[in-house]
Amino acid sequence: MAFYWTLQQLVQATNAELILPAGKVLTEEFALQIPFAKAVTDSRAVSEEFERIQANTGKDEKTSGVLYIAIVGERFDGHQFVESAIEQGAVAVLVSSLVDSCPVPQVLVDDTRIALGEFAKWHRLQMTVKAVVGITGSNGKTTTKTMIADLLQTQGATLMTQGNLNNDFGVPRTLLELRPEHEFAVVEMGANHVGEIRYLTNLVNPDIALLNNAAGAHLEGFGSLNGVIEGKGEIFEGIRKDSDFSVAILNADSPGIEVWRKKVKQLKISQAIEFSQCDENSVRSSEWQNVCWQDSKKQTSTSLNCFDLNFSSGKTLEIAMPLIGQHNAYNAAACAAVGQALSIPMDAIQTVLNRFSGVSGRLQTEILQFGQLIDDSYNANPASVKAGIDVLAQMDGLGIICLGAMAELGEGAEQAHLEIARYAAQKGIHSLFFKQSDLSDYSVAETFLGSTIYSEEQSMVAQEFSEHDALIARLKVFIDSQIKSVGQNFRQQKKSLANSVLESQEFTSLNILVKGSRSAQMELVAQALRLSYALSSE
Fold this sequence. Notes:
The protein is α/β, with parallel strands linked by helices.
C-alpha cells in the first residue's frame, strides 16, 4: 500500500491553522483529508516528486500529492516560490505568512523550520522501527554512519542520512524518509554550537546514541574544546527511555569521556557500551597494522587496515578492512559496539567490516601515474588532518600534502594551521601545497620550512596559493619532475641522509594527500589529478 500523510496529521503535529483557498468550494473536512506522500523545501523538486509518487501508486490506490514547505533562511525566503511550487503541482503549502490568492490550502505556523522539525519528530514516533541509531562526533561521523548502516542492512531495511543532511534542516528531512518497511535508521547529527545537538536528538529520539569523539572542530561556535565536549554530549539527552535498547555508546579514549560517563549516569540510561584502543572493558581494537601490496601486471594496489576487535565476552574478531588509517579502527570498533547492543551475530559484523571500503572523499586511495592519490577532501579539522598525515607518513614512498584552509576555528585558526605545518614536517612529509583562505594572514609554508628535514636541493616544495588553478599548475610541475627523477635521484640522496624517518622509506612513488574543509573545495585538486594522471586503459 502506498504511503501518505494527510493535512490533518500535519496540522495536529505542528499545532497549525488550516487556511482554505478563497473562492473555491472546499470544506475544511475535505481539505484535512488531502493526502501527500512527500514534503519538499525546493519548489523545483515538486513535479519530479509528484511523477515519482504516481509511478509508485497502484491502480486501486489513492493518488497522493506533494507538500511544499516555505523555509525562511538568512539569504532566501521560500514564500517567494510558493506560486512556482503550486504551478508544478503542490497540493498544499506550509507557510509562516499567508500568500495572497493562494489556490491551495495553506497550513499556517509561526516558523516553518521549527514546524518541519515538529512534523518529523511526530512522524518518527509513528514508525515502528526496531531501532534508530543517532550518531555525532567531531570526526568520523559519516564513515562510521555508513559502516553501521551497512551492518544494519544485513538485518533489515535501513534508512541512512544522505550527504550532509545533519543539521536542523537536514535531520527532519531524513526522518521524513522513514517508511513502514524500514526496520532500522542511522541518523547523523552535526553541530557548530552548544544546544544544537540537544534540539536534534530530541527530534530523532534515538534508541542508541553513539558519540564518536570530541576534538577541536567548529571552535568558532563552540568556543573551546570544553564547549565541544558539552555540545556533543547532548546527544544522550534524547535517548528513548521506553526503548527495547536505550543504549549510550562512548569513545573511552576521547577527551570528555569522564564528562559523558557522568552524564549518562545522571540520565539513568539503561546501558552504556564503550569502545577504545586501550580499555579492556570496552570493544577494543588492537594489533593494528597497515598491509599493502601491488599487482604490477594489473597496475593495482591494495591497502588493508588489519586489526583485532576484542569484546568483553572474550570473543575476538580478526579484521582486514580495505580502508586505510588507524583512526578507522576506532570507527570499526564503534560500529561493532552498535552491533553488540543489537545482538547482531559476530560473523555478520566481521563480514561487513572486512568488505567496507569507505566513503567518497574520505581517505579514498587510488593508483595514478605518479603513485597513490589519497582523497580526503570532504572536510577537515585539526584532528582529522593529523590522522590523514599519520596515514601518509606510514605509506611507502614520498609523502605530499595538498591542504586547504580549515574553517570555523575562530581565534585559534592561526595556531591550528601552524601546528599542522609543524606536525607534517616532523612526520617526514616531503612537500606541502597550501590553499589559503581569504582571511589567512600567516604563513603555513614558512612554518613547514622551519621544521622540515628536507631541503630545496632535495626538490622539496612548501608553497601557498590563493587560487586552485595556481596550486594545481605548480603541483603538476612538481609531479612531472618527480616522475622522471624519483626512481633514481632520491635513492641516491637517501644514502646520505641519517634521519631515521627517511631510512624507513622507499622512494618508489609519490603519495599525495588532498584534504581541506568543505569551503576550501579541495575536491577540485583531486579531480584535476585524476584527469591528468589516470592510468592508461591499454
